[in-house]
Amino acid sequence: MYKQAVSIALMLGCVLSVQAQEGGENQPSPEEMQAMMEQWMASVAPNENHKRLEPLVGKWDVTMKMWWDPAGEPQISKGSSETRWVLGGRFIQDDFTCDFMGMPYNGIGMTGYDNNRSMYVNTWANNMDTTILRTSGSCDPSGKVLTLYGEQDEPMLNVYGRMVKHRLTIVDNDTHTFEIFDLHAGDDYKVLEIIYTRVKE
Known about the structure:
Blueprint: H1 2-21, H2 30-44, H3 48-51, E1 58-66, E2 75-86, E3 91-100, E4 103-114, E5 119-126, E6 133-139, E7 145-154, E8 159-172, E9 175-182, E10 190-198
Antiparallel strand pairs: 1-2, 1-10, 2-3, 3-4, 4-5, 5-6, 6-7, 7-8, 8-9, 9-10
């Protein structure tokens, strides 16, 4: 609660500072400031859209399949993942590790719901790249399929800003899948699939 109060104070301080710099004479009344605080608190509170991500939380065994040619056999890697709520239930953070072509692969992903833009958002960073992949999109009416879109670079192919589709499907409470599709090659051109199976403790 202390951190939220500090954030509110900083936000209101910025608003008042801008008004003062612009020569604004009408400073908000205490009642108006209270209304602003309540509006801001409501806009940043986790809601039912965030709760849809709850089945993704936990410890997981993962099987990653990568296709260089969708018509061929995939390259399969095994690994693990631990996903937990962070930042007051606003995001889930996925700490992912596996063996990729004989090399250790580590990635960190964050997924949440942006109340301001009314969409799901995701970021991904890993130890084999220097970029942060950003995607955004929506959930289907069932609340089980999350589809996100973004741009991904392929330096080995000298291709930059390639459009990709990410699809996360909650099969049940103990299983979910994550897929990547290369939209440059086709809407259903799948290049990667990860199967998450919950670790029973």
